[in-house]
């Protein structure tokens, strides 16, 4: 019964406890056919040739200049490949995928936007284990599990756990109806807080025309897999080992808006994501821990782990 | 079972709809080399030039000599008895290309110049 299975968690952000869930603005593309893995593999930065049923692999799509245009979570379900990308980039990503199908390959591309939905539930590990059966399932890293008609995945981020659920959009009301009262739908602002707090990147950062290494996403780039768009640039960056800028989190004493700044000591700063007194920024090499822009003090915080959503 | 399974559940298939009338140019060197390679099979075989995703710049060229495919989805141009087939799906990417052949030890072989490409990789196999 859904009431017993209801996904209800506490949201911990900056020591505040909230109850909630977040409905993602994702794009859903499905590839099927015997050549679909080979086809998708030619377009992305990681290697999915050996992907197994219910395994997911995170990857990037880059342009020929090596800049990120979209991030994907690629989930294999039987003989189909589900690509979860950013809604803002979906048109270009699908155009790229469809236009590059070889005439002699067995690949069909389908659009799941509006038909499929991804919901994330976030809370302490204890909450999740106590409340939902998913928490009691043994789910390996990067593995999804089938829970009734839903696909679910658990991600632990230090003391917080996140459960992602993919379901038909028509089922969303059903799952939410059975959640006990007092649990809020998280708005965009709440989700952005969670992202910044936990080092989760999204299109808000990619849209700044960045290389994977500038966002600390080198782990999603496989230079041994063969050619893909952007590979030449990524290989050159690796061999030179020199980054012009890198993403970090900041905390400031005053609100700071999105935009480009120059610090008192001349460092170039690009605030890509701002929640007021915290957010992400891109910065060149610098020595001081505190950066000063007019009367604003920015404290730099290294991101311990970087993820994509 | 497919994505999220269930009876009566299906997703709309996306197809590429832009098809243009293809006109390509083939140099004399390329025609001679195609004839040489086909060794008298021109009646039954053809050269298929196609594009697929991948490579450093976004798309990769592919050229194959195969038995003439029985499909309405190709556009055909004949060059001195040799037929060149281009699939409708590749028509917008390959319209206007020039096919050349260079008989040199270094960097020799078939070479495509593509007016639709805003960039090409050094090896000449990839364009975007």
Q: Quickly give the CATH architecture of the largest domain in chain A.
A: 2-Layer Sandwich
Distance between the termini of chain A: 29 Å
Structural class of chain A: alpha+beta
Radius of gyration of chain A: 20 Å
In total, the number of domains of chain A comes to 2
Per the principal axes of the C-alpha atoms, what is the gross shape of chain B? globular
The CATH topology of the largest domain in chain A, please? Answer: Gyrase A, domain 2
Care to count the β-strands of chain A? 20
Largest interface: A-B, 40 and 35 residues
CATH class bucket of chain B: Mainly Beta
- The average pLDDT score of chain B comes to 89
> What is the number of independent domains of chain B?
1
Largest sheet of chain A: 7 strands, mixed
Reading off the top of the CATH hierarchy, the class of the largest domain in chain A is best stated as Alpha Beta
Q: Give the overall shape of chain A, derived from the CA principal axes.
A: globular
Distance between the termini of chain B: 37 Å
Task: Let me know the number of strands of chain B.
Answer: 9
* Biggest sheet layout of chain B: 5 strands, mixed
CATH topology of chain B: Hypothetical Protein Aq_1857, Chain: A
Percent of residues in helices of chain B: 10-25%
Low-confidence stretches of chain A: 1-17
